[in-house]
Amino acid sequence: MFNLIVVLFCAFNSIVFAFVHSPSLNDVLFNGGYDFIDLTHSFDKSTIYWPTMKNFTFTEKFKEISEDGSWYAANNFAAGEHGGTHLDAPYHFNLNGIRVGAIPLDKLIVPLIVADISSKVNDDPNFVLQKHHLDNMLNNNFGKPFYIVFKFGWSKFFDDRDRYLGIQANGTFNFPGLSEEVAEWITSSYKNIVGIGVDTASVDPGSSIDFPVHKIASAAGLFNTENVKLDVTVPDYGCTALILPMKIASGTGAPLRLVAICPKQVPTRF
Ligand SMILES: *[C@@H]1O[C@H](CO)[C@@H](O)[C@H](O)[C@H]1NC(C)=O
Ligand SMILES: *[C@@H]1O[C@H](CO)[C@@H](O)[C@H](O)[C@H]1NC(C)=O
Ligand SMILES: [Zn+2]
């Protein structure tokens, strides 16, 4: 009798266990159902930096075989905050905004929405994104916080600095960007957006001299990510973004490793 009770108890226990056991994140991510997509340009001597910033410099410091035959290598690097694939902290354009090191992880690991407007841009450096270009999104009620990346189709020019920045004879820039109207929409109507991304050098159009999109996003506490590498296909929704800047405590910005984790079977809902 006693043995029977023990057996019943154990059986009951494992049933309860089966009910409460949910798969770990590892079980989910590594079951073969996900793609890991790198949205980051490499950092090297040709990485595009904002012209007032120090370019990426990489100095080989040690590269040698010791007397005992073992190998040792180590390098130095230096760079401005704003170049290559990078993040702008709210403090970049707002005195009261937080700096890179203070951005909480729950804003940096979030659902990703890719708004592919490249067919509307059609390689025109004068294109400025207006609300009417986003008609299909405007009335969507996205429930959860998310990060939105606008694909202008500009990553294919990244290897050609003059073309990418649209450098004019007088030294000014010309590449597509967001309008002030879209920045207002992002920050006022859809407060669930935690950050903005673009596959160009700036969220403001290249010709901008007063950077309203930067100012509006910063004032609303959003971060920007610029020079996102979008020359690969990324589902419009369903992916999770890992937006992980180098944790420069006082940074106004920082180099960023940006990754999308995307289910191979795109879900029917955001
Ligand atoms: C960075 O490199 C570019 C391309 O070579 C050059 O035009 C620019 O002047 C450099 N920037 C600085 C601050 O040295
Ligand atoms: C620089 O040249 C471009 C193209 O010609 C022009 O649109 C822009 O107004 C000029 N900017 C300045 C500051 O001269
Ligand atoms: Zn920046």
TrEMBL record:
Keywords: Hydrolase, Signal. InterPro entries: KFase/CYL (IPR007325), KFase_sf (IPR037175). Gene3D superfamilies: Putative cyclase (3.50.30.50). SUPFAM superfamilies: Putative cyclase. GO terms for molecular function: arylformamidase activity. GO terms for biological process: L-tryptophan catabolic process to kynurenine. Residues 1-18 form the signal peptide. Belongs to the Cyclase 1 superfamily. PANTHER family: CYCLASE-LIKE PROTEIN 2. This is Isatin hydrolase. It comes from Bicyclus anynana. The lineage of its organism: Eukaryota, Metazoa, Ecdysozoa, Arthropoda, Hexapoda.
